[in-house]
Design a protein that fits this description.
The radius of gyration is 18 Å and the shape is elongated. The protein is an all-alpha fold. The chain has 10 helices and 2 strands; from the N terminus they run ααααααααααββ. Strands 1-2 form a two-stranded antiparallel sheet.
Length: 221
């Protein structure tokens, strides 16, 4: 679950601050969001959506676990997504959300359909937020599939979701601070590339193309 934790903590600094600032400002226009409990419900709804996705993807991984080289293919897929997200953090490639523009527009219309939010609908708005097409969430779902367990996949996404909360709570402050944001994007990109390299080597080792690297009793890849 370390990958999920670091993806949430550092990935949210590099990605969510830019992508979710508009969502935070949109929700903040509703009077009900002057109540801090409403924000707690929003994040609870968002994380609930992640848990559900983790459960579904983990179950999918469990169903496919018997296929030969499944783990190797997932490791290489995660590596490719990690490298792409790292390059998107530093502006070398477009953010994956651009490829899902039509879905994002439909999501925005659904959010704006709530003319008057209340505490109960705050949770529902959070669930809708959790299903917003997001490259970082898609990347986090690969370890959920690789866990080959619905329960572990859900736990991975719970850890990921909780780890994104600090950045989103501070999003207004961070949006006005260009230097920390650039620094955080660079750090998130470096961490993402390290994970990408590790998972790529793990996939190649599973295919027998390279040797597994052991550090004592710990398999690095």
């Amino acid at each position: 679950m370390l990958a999920s934790l670091l993806l949430g903590l550092l990935g949210s600094l590099g990605h969510c601050v830019g992508m979710c600032s508009a969502v935070v400002l949109l929700l903040n226009r509703h009077p009900v969001f002057q109540n801090k409990f409403a924000w707690a419900l929003v994040h609870a709804g968002r994380i609930s959506a992640y848990i559900l996705l983790g459960f579904i993807f983990g179950a999918f991984g469990q169903a496919l676990a018997s296929f030969d080289k499944f783990q190797a293919a997932l490791s290489i897929l995660f590596a490719a997504l990690a490298f792409y997200m790292a390059s998107a953090f530093i502006g070398l490639t477009p953010s994956p959300e651009i490829l899902l523009t039509s879905l994002t527009q439909r999501w925005g219309r659904a959010i704006r359909a709530f003319k008057s939010a209340s505490l109960p609908t705050s949770y529902l708005l959070g669930v809708l937020w959790g299903f917003l097409p997001c490259g970082l969430v898609l990347t986090a779902l690969v370890p959920a599939i690789a866990s080959k367990s619905a329960t572990t996949g859900a736990l991975n996404m719970l850890v990921f979701g909780l780890a994104t909360v600090p950045s989103l709570l501070a999003v207004k402050w961070l949006a006005d601070k260009s230097t920390p944001r650039l620094w955080s994007r660079g750090l998130a990109a470096v961490v993402m590339m390290i994970f990408g390299f590790q998972f790529a080597m793990r996939g190649f080792a599973s295919l027998g193309l390279v040797e597994h690297l052991m550090l004592g009793e710990i398999m690095f890849w």
